Amino acid sequence: xxxxxxxxxxxxxxxxxxxxxxxxxxxxxxxxxxxxxxxxxxxxxxxxxxxxxxxxxxxxxxxxxxxxxxxxxxxxxxxxxxxxxxxxxxxxxxxxxxxxxxxxxxxxxxxxxxxxxxxxxxxxxxxxxxxxxxxxxxxxxxxxxxxxxxxxxxxxxxxxxxxxxxxxxxxxxxxxxxxxxxxxxxxxxxxxxxxxxxxxxxxxxxxxxxxxxxxxxxxxxxxxxxxxxxxxxxxxxxxxxxxxxxxxxxxxxxxxxxxxxxxxxxxxxxxxxxxxxxxxxxxxxxxxxxxxxxx
Length: 295
Ligand SMILES: [Zn+2]
Hints:
Layout: E1 6-11, H1 18-29, E2 40-45, H2 48-53, H3 68-71, H4 81-93, E3 103-109, E4 115-120, H5 125-137, E5 142-145, E6 162-169, H6 178-199, E7 209-219, E8 231-233, E9 250-254, E10 259-261, E11 285-294
Parallel strand pairs: 1-2, 1-3, 3-6, 4-5, 5-7
Antiparallel strand pairs: 4-6, 7-11, 8-9, 9-10
Helix pairs in contact: 5-6
The structure holds zinc ion (ZN).
Zinc ion (ZN) binds near residues 14 and 108.
């Protein structure tokens, strides 16, 4: 077992998700909060220009800029601000950078009812064990696996050997909610405490059963031939993230009041329902399957 030496906590990867930005400010002011004896904890504001502008990004979503083949050296095709920032971050914290990171924790918030969600990109035993531990100490925590989405290739959290995203919601963009701030903060401390124990070869007791919501695909809004949205999220599923959606259940509502039902054969558990930032990505929700794993 190789020890964890460097942990990076990132906020403001999206400039209008401000809980993470203020948590990073707090940790930089009170570094004892994130100090653990057996590893170094570093902090970073992911996209400072977007934070200053109060926007998700300036030119391009920073959290889609870490595909290292695309990133390469600067060319006219990747000269946008976020690609430049991704190169800086990779130079600082990438596996061949100045301070190679073992674990990245990237803080986000969502307009969808994500509660408190830990995002994993693969089912490495290290990731599953951390998820099982966190589920044991925070029973309301949801574990979302994007292993089948390809997100492990382009996200900021792909920088380190291990990477986790935290999503909390529902919260509007640019807004702080104290309750979600504190829940995010508590989850970070739980992660740091676990890593400390892991380094001490003293992994704490945990549930061996893990419920995982595994990404299976996305659904776009119904659109016309010009790409304009023709329907809204059906009120019955608004804020119903992580709840079962069965064939025939209402999914969208047209402006004329017509119901569009989910027609898939298998029961799914939608998440990121009506996420404001995903309208431009043609995503009305992500569909997941609920899985029970034994760790
Ligand atoms: Zn985000």
